[in-house]
Amino acid sequence: MKRHKDLISVLRANNMRITPARRALIQFILNNKTRRIPLREIYDHVGSVLDSVDRSSIYRNLQVLKKMDVLQELNLPKVGKCFQFVFDRKVHHYFICKECGRSSRGKPELFQRIEQALRDVHGFSKANLSVVFYGLCSNCTKD
Amino acid sequence: MKRHKDLISVLRANNMRITPARRALIQFILNNKTRRIPLREIYDHVGSVLDSVDRSSIYRNLQVLKKMDVLQELNLPKVGKCFQFVFDRKVHHYFICKECGRSSRGKPELFQRIEQALRDVHGFSKANLSVVFYGLCSNCTKD
DNA sequence: CACTTTATTGCAATATGTTGCATTAAGGGA
DNA sequence: TCCCTTAATGCAACATATTGCAATAAAGTG
């Protein structure tokens, strides 16, 4: 799922309605697919496109999209709460530096190894899993 | 580090002072070592032991202990924000169910495998790393 | 198009979390 | 024990997030 249209029909399928506020939100998220978008930006933007969507509606819609696994929520130490579009509703996994808050994606190979370990050790095979590593990045590691 | 005394001396070593509020907080956390304590409980308790410690002080102290890797912060879906005492300031890793919010610890073996994969794939060897898995527990997996 | 159902919104009240600043008191030194 | 430095507190203002409820409007039906 990469396109607006697709996302809309998923919403429809789940008996959800396409309101202007929701459309604007989806638009903005898809325009920023590749970024972790700070929450602040989201409601600044959505609140300004239409002449003011209430804060509560924005929050509610973010929760909805999160529950649908369209968005992943990340709490980056310095930046604060962010949302990341999840391509094809597949897994994302991140390294987040506790110190500076920078985040980076793990290599696919890492995730394969982790999945394997999860299967072996815990018999856990559910797809749609997100993994977040909190540690120190190489910059912030002071010995 | 398992005892009050030890924790106190770590604070001292970091040029931090032992105030009544801080003492009460540490006491409470150590009395609940084995649990993930909901934030709510923490400030209800600490706020009542002494006749009222300000909200802001409690938050600030929690942040301090988190930065020292004495506490790990977890955001459990239903329960909300929790804090977990980190034995010996070593890693904790969790499975958190997106649906029901229940969480459980991973087996040590899993973590060893993950550490190994991190070394192999990313050359990432920093200790004191926490790993959080978000997925669906077996109860909430509906096919 | 008019009508009905009910998901979604806006609003207001409330809960939760953060920050700046003047004041207090912990803890080390004389 | 008194004094000094400055970490930590309380307070107030503010920012961020959640919730209940009445009003609105999306979308299916005749």
Q: Strand order of the main beta sheet of chain A, please?
A: 1-3-2
Task: Please give the radius of gyration of chain A in angstroms.
Answer: 17 Å
Give the terminus-to-terminus CA distance of chain A: 44 Å
| Strand-residue proportion of chain A | 15-25%
Q: Roughly how much helix do the residues of chain A carry, as a percent range?
A: 40-55%
**Largest interface: chains, residues each:** A-B, 27 and 27 residues
- Uncertain runs of chain A are none
Secondary-structure-based class of chain A equals alpha+beta
Give the SSE order of chain A as H and E letters.
HHEHHEEEEHE
Number of helices of chain A: 5
The profile of the biggest β sheet of chain A is:
3 strands, antiparallel
Give the beta-strand count of chain A.
Answer: 6
Describe this structure in words.
Two copies of one chain form a homodimer. The first copy, chain A, is built from five helices and six strands, in the order ααβααββββαβ. By secondary structure, the first copy, chain A, is an alpha+beta fold. In chain A, the strands form two sheets. A three-stranded antiparallel β-sheet of chain A has the order 1-3-2. Chain A has a three-stranded mixed β-sheet with strand order 5-4-6, with no helix packed on it. In chain A, helix 2 crosses helix 3. The radius of gyration of chain A is 17 Å and the shape is globular. Chains A and B meet through helix 5 and strand 6 of A and helix 5 and strand 6 of B. Strand 6 of chain A pairs antiparallel with strand 6 of chain B. Chain A binds a DNA duplex (30 and 30 nucleotides) through helix 4.
